[in-house]
Design goal:
2 domains, DNA polymerase, domain 1
């Protein structure tokens, strides 16, 4: 008997991991394609999954001890391509994927390529400093103090106040996105402004 995978009719909590993978290809993948995503090469945004397939998120967390990203990557086998060299450690693959997905979200807003490149450069500088100075990954929960301290150290590299302001804005937006996508429980740089990280 063929199971119908519909968020409104299926009891997600009764599905095994193998059945959830089947549900991905039968129901989630077509929905992704309909919204302009490629289910074979990218992960759907967390908020998109929460809006359409909340039962999947609950089942992965409560029954299988997995996040949606772990499920998409490890069980379904979808590993997004990240073409930019972020210059992070090889074992920081999750961070590189997250950063690449963030940049893709900016590209979907039709920003100028020069703006995207500048943003990516500043984000990469922050990520590299974060990796060298902390015992947790950028994508893992961490304190506001850790984020602000890292931002302060990166800001020292920039000469003009305007450049520092762009850095703070870019990293703050990244942290907001990490929270929206379910990496963090909270936006660790919410409300942080230039004067909070610039010494003197």
């Amino acid at each position: 008997m063929t199971r119908t995978y519909s968020d409104g009719s299926v009891r997600w909590s009764s599905l095994t991991i193998d059945e959830l993978v089947e549900a991905y290809w039968e129901t989630i993948a077509p929905a992704m394609r309909a919204d302009g995503m490629d289910p074979e090469t990218e992960h759907p945004p967390y908020r998109w999954v929460a809006d359409r397939f909340r039962g999947l998120i609950y089942t992965l967390s409560e029954r299988h001890d997995r996040t949606p990203r772990e499920f998409f990557r490890e069980d379904v086998g979808v590993v997004p391509y990240e073409g930019y060299d972020w210059e992070l450690a090889e074992d920081d693959h999750e961070v590189m994927v997250a950063l690449s997905e963030y940049i893709e979200s900016l590209q979907q807003r039709d920003l100028a390529e020069s703006t995207i490149e500048a943003t990516r450069s500043r984000i990469a500088a922050y990520a590299r400093r974060f990796e060298r100075r902390n015992d947790v990954r950028l994508t893992e929960p961490h304190s506001r103090e850790t984020a602000v301290e890292t931002l302060l150290r990166v800001a020292r590299r920039y000469v003009t106040r305007d450049a520092k302001r762009h850095l703070v804005s870019d990293v703050r937006s990244l942290c907001a996105w990490l929270a929206e996508e379910g990496y963090h429980d909270e936006h660790v740089l919410e409300g942080v402004e230039l004067d909070d990280v610039v010494e003197g």
